[in-house]
Each structure stands twice: as C-alpha cells, then as structure tokens.
Amino acid sequence: MATGQIFSRNTQALFYNYKQLPIQRMLDFDFLCGRETPSVAGIINPGAEGFQKLFFGQEEIAIPVHSSIEAACSAHPTADVFINFASFRSAAASSMSALKQPTIRVIAIIAEGVPESDTKQLIAYARSNNKVVIGPATVGGIQAGAFKIGDTAGTIDNIIQCKLYRPGSVGFVSKSGGMSNELYNTIARVTDGIYEGIAIGGDVFPGSTLSDHILRFNNIPQVKMMVVLGELGGRDEYSLVEALKQGKVQKPVVAWVSGTCARLFKSEVQFGHAGAKSGGELESAQAKNQALREAGAVVPTSYEAFEGAIKETFEKLAEEGKITPVPEVTPPPIPEDLNSAIKSGKVRAPTHIISTISDDRGEEPCYAGVPMSTIVEKGFGVGDVISLLWFKRSLPRYCTQFIEICIMLCADHGPCVSGAHNTIVTARAGKDLVSSLVSGLLTIGPRFGGAVDDAARYFKDAYDRGLSPYEFVESMKKKGIRVPGIGHRIKRGDNRDKRVELLQQYAHTHFPSVKYMEYAVQVETYTLSKSNNLVLNVDGAIGSLFLDLLAGSGMFSKQEIDEIVEIGYLNGLFVLARSIGLIGHTFDQKRLKQPLYRHPWEDVLYTK
C-alpha cells in the first residue's frame, strides 16, 4: 500500500446513505480551510434522485443525489473517495460495488459489525487493485487544511481548537476514532499540529493497518514525525515493529499502546472495540509497547507521559532544523445555523406560521390543548374533534351531536347534483381520488351548497335589526338578491325536505333557544305565500340553527359569532360533509369500472 498522500485540497468524495450532519460538517470544514469547491461532489441514496440543499459557508448549495453508485461515479468522475454510511447489513456489498468502480481510490466504511468474512474479501480486492480501505468501524480520517471524512474531529469548535484548518507536521494514526479527537488536541498543544490523521477502526480485521499508514506518512515530505496510538488485542502493531526494525521508517515515531490496565483483571477483558481483546501475552499492551520501544519508537512509560514524549520529539526536530513550525493563520468564521443560534439565544427570528388549534411537539398531538389519548379515552366523536379544531373549545354534547347530524344529512344528495356529477365524470376519466374529489368540491359556491354562510349572515342581520319577515324579504328583492336558504328545485310547501324537519326536531328537543330558526320559519311562511317552492331548505335550516347553537350555548361572544359567520365556518360543514359523498361516488365509479363519460347529443341544444 505504501505510496503517499491520499487526500488533497482538491479531493472530492461521494457520500453513500444521506446523513445531513456529517455532510454539513465536511462542508463547514471545507469553508474553514478556504477550499474553493465543496469536498462532497454527490450523494448516493438508493432509490432516490434529485438534490439536497446544504450550506457552503454563507452560500446555500444543491448537491446532486443519485440512486446508484454507478450513476454517481459516472456523473462525478473526479470524485475518488467513497464515504460509506450504510448500516453493517449493507456496508460490505455497497463498498465492494464502489471498489469495483475505476474512479474510486479510497473507501471509508463507518459501520461497526460488518461480518469479518466480508471485510476480508474487501481487503483482498482492495490490495490486489491498489486501493485503500479505511475501516470498518471508523470515524474516518483528515488531512488538515484540505479534506476530512464525515464526523472526523467532531465539531467546528474542536477542529479550530486542534488547529486542523491548516496543515502541521505530524502524521497520526490510531485504531480509535474517539481517541483520535483527543490526540488531535494533544498534538496541537505541543507541536505545530496534524498534517494527516487516520482512524483505522477497531474491528479485528481493519481495511488498512497502522503500519500501512505510517509507511505512507514516511513518504510524505511535509510529515516530519509520526504519532501512533494502538491498543491491546491483535498483532497489527507488530507489523510496525518489523517496519521499524527493517529501516523502512526514517522519521521519528512516538507510540503508545493503550490497555495496560487489562492485567489488573483476573479474567480476559473485552474493551470497546471488537479487536480490543488480548488473546495472549504477545497481544497485551505491555508486550506491544516493549516491542515498539526495542524497535526504535519513542514509547513513554504511561499514557500520561505520551504528551510529553510527543512534545520532546517535536522540539528536538525543531532544534535540529528539520521542522520549521507552521505560521499560525486565522480561520474564517463559520456562519451559525439559525436553529442553533436561536437555541443559544444569540438571535431572534420571526416565525412564519401561527397555529392555535393543534400542537405536535410533545409526546402526542394535542387538539386545542386536549391530548390525543384523552380524545380517544373519553370517546370523543367527529363533532367533538371539529369543536376543538374549528372552535378551539370543547362544546356540549348536544352541540357536537348536531354537528355530526349536519354532516350525515349533507354527506350526499344523489348523483345528479353538480358536485357529484363532476366527480363522477372525473372518476370515469380515469383520474385519481383527489382529482375526482376536488373537481366536485370546486362546484360548491353560491349556487350549490354554498348558501349556508349567506343564510346565516342574512337571517342574523335581519333578526338582530328587528326586521319583520315582510321587510326582510322585500328589502332583499329590491336589492336583487335571492334570500339564501329559501327555495328548492323539488321540494314544496306540501312536500317538505325531510332533512330540514329532522334538524328542527333535534333543535326543539335539545337547544336552549331557537330564536333564529323560528325567525327563518316566519320568513318561510311569508315566501310560501308567494310561491309553493320557496320553502326553507337545508342550507337555511343549518344556517339558522347554527346561529342558535352559537348564541344559545353561552360559549361565544357576539364578536366571535360574527367572525365565525363571516369567515365561512358553516360552509366548511357542507364541504366536509359532501366530501364523504363525493369520495363514495369516486369509489363507486371505480368499482363499477365505468368507461369515459360522454354527454349524449340528444341532451344538447345545438343552436346559432
């Protein structure tokens, strides 16, 4: 594997299995380092295509999303790093697919628990094709001031603290991603910082070894010394021992193998990583540290002395003129995301939507402050839910039952009315449910089903002003306005609408007051004297009775009642109710497999 540098300021990666935070952290690091182009060229999300919006400094950018590895590699031939955030179940297959792409040179496998047999196949293929695998079970790697993989080095604050926004002189390799963050900080305190850092991962069979990267660092001129953090278990460190003994490493190596405390336990200990388990004396931390020391590495007596050993080695190189400490630079500030700035109290931002009827932020949704569990446990019906979401209060049972009766009575009025006809024609044209429903709903207006609000509005105004039925009807006539809620195409004074009678019976039985309904009946008496079809229709009945519900319940102020009528609440009842019937007509036509509707010629008057 040897060779040398695997990343640069121009390196671009393909990111497999979209994760917003690690990608944004990569882009923030790019901006911090002064890169001109983002390091993430594309995202691979199996089965999805399009773009993902992210930030590159202050600028919002769109990163392409591809549905397959092959498509992404074809679209971004210069992207030679594959960052795999797939789960352990699919990480091996997707990694092998990426390795087989000629454009991919380096793969980082983040997942833990990848089957060892699969990992061995990946390693064998990568080595035979001169490719680099970092991981599995890794956080990735970083080249300071140039490129980083995913969540490597953590937050931007930590990256700045560790001076990773510009290159230093130290090459670092570790098994542990978490300890890498710690060592980046340690190295930044006592040297001019990291040039490149790699966490090979804690699995038993890492895709690349400690010695693989040390030998690479040895070939990178900018790396003047190396720091290694190993751990008990396995024999990876011994390949580094052999490389040191054979003189393959000409630069100082400061090393420590963690896990010396394992000897304090009476039985064998499994530490955090799969590979951190001593299988005998040779795999103990003490034996490895001793072997490294004898091979020529600088090995302290304890982890506490590790920092001092790194500092002493760096200072010696500086005194010998082998290192010219890197001049410090001030990195640009990273714009803070609005959400985090709001949480920290740094900024105030206006909201874009106000909602007073429901809240889904807690453990369960609430309607007007009433938890969903309460609605179910207390046996609330549709009328109760409407009272909460429309009127923001829990109305008495007789009110919510009246709402439910209105919905039931207005759900459908046969296939011949305009709304149902439109829905049937649309459904027979092969359109979907929503299109068929909407085509019917769009006919609701002043001529079809939309008179409920107007009936309530005019009846209320006339009653509140003390107009007699005669004065009301004649004043409407002079204005050229038909009285809403009065008149029917079929029903007559001697053949009343059964729906109106049912509503009136319910109101007389349950409502504390029916003054508006009684006024509407008086108006009907007057209009019937003019024509037998000028009866109180269902719109007029619902409109007048809803006024009685609002006024008689004692739960609404006059201003609230006026607002409810003006906004159009009552028409909402008709829209809600009739949607049930329109959906039914759609299903009926689909079930019957009715063909495209064409209006018959004989039903059309063709004229000039």
From TrEMBL:
<keyword id="KW-0460">Magnesium</keyword>
<comment type="subunit">
    <text>Heterooctamer of 4 alpha and 4 beta chains.</text>
</comment>
<dbReference type="Pfam" id="PF00285">
    <property type="entry name" value="Citrate_synt"/>
</dbReference>
<dbReference type="GO" id="GO:0006633">
    <property type="term" value="P:fatty acid biosynthetic process"/>
</dbReference>
<dbReference type="Pfam" id="PF00549">
    <property type="entry name" value="Ligase_CoA"/>
</dbReference>
<dbReference type="InterPro" id="IPR005811">
    <property type="entry name" value="SUCC_ACL_C"/>
</dbReference>
<dbReference type="GO" id="GO:0005829">
    <property type="term" value="C:cytosol"/>
</dbReference>
<dbReference type="GO" id="GO:0046872">
    <property type="term" value="F:metal ion binding"/>
</dbReference>
<feature type="domain" description="ATP-citrate synthase/succinyl-CoA ligase C-terminal">
    <location>
        <begin position="173"/>
        <end position="298"/>
    </location>
</feature>
<dbReference type="InterPro" id="IPR033847">
    <property type="entry name" value="Citrt_syn/SCS-alpha_CS"/>
</dbReference>
<dbReference type="InterPro" id="IPR002020">
    <property type="entry name" value="Citrate_synthase"/>
</dbReference>
<dbReference type="InterPro" id="IPR036969">
    <property type="entry name" value="Citrate_synthase_sf"/>
</dbReference>
<dbReference type="InterPro" id="IPR017440">
    <property type="entry name" value="Cit_synth/succinyl-CoA_lig_AS"/>
</dbReference>
<keyword id="KW-0963">Cytoplasm</keyword>
<protein>
    <recommendedName>
        <fullName>ATP citrate synthase</fullName>
        <ecNumber>2.3.3.8</ecNumber>
    </recommendedName>
</protein>
<keyword id="KW-0443">Lipid metabolism</keyword>
<dbReference type="GO" id="GO:0003878">
    <property type="term" value="F:ATP citrate synthase activity"/>
</dbReference>
<keyword id="KW-0808">Transferase</keyword>
<dbReference type="InterPro" id="IPR016102">
    <property type="entry name" value="Succinyl-CoA_synth-like"/>
</dbReference>
<dbReference type="InterPro" id="IPR036291">
    <property type="entry name" value="NAD(P)-bd_dom_sf"/>
</dbReference>
<dbReference type="GO" id="GO:0006085">
    <property type="term" value="P:acetyl-CoA biosynthetic process"/>
</dbReference>
<keyword id="KW-0547">Nucleotide-binding</keyword>
<keyword id="KW-0444">Lipid biosynthesis</keyword>
<keyword id="KW-0479">Metal-binding</keyword>
<dbReference type="InterPro" id="IPR017866">
    <property type="entry name" value="Succ-CoA_synthase_bsu_CS"/>
</dbReference>
<dbReference type="GO" id="GO:0005524">
    <property type="term" value="F:ATP binding"/>
</dbReference>
<keyword id="KW-0067">ATP-binding</keyword>
<dbReference type="InterPro" id="IPR016142">
    <property type="entry name" value="Citrate_synth-like_lrg_a-sub"/>
</dbReference>
<dbReference type="InterPro" id="IPR016143">
    <property type="entry name" value="Citrate_synth-like_sm_a-sub"/>
</dbReference>
<keyword id="KW-0012">Acyltransferase</keyword>
<comment type="similarity">
    <text>Belongs to the succinate/malate CoA ligase alpha subunit family.</text>
</comment>
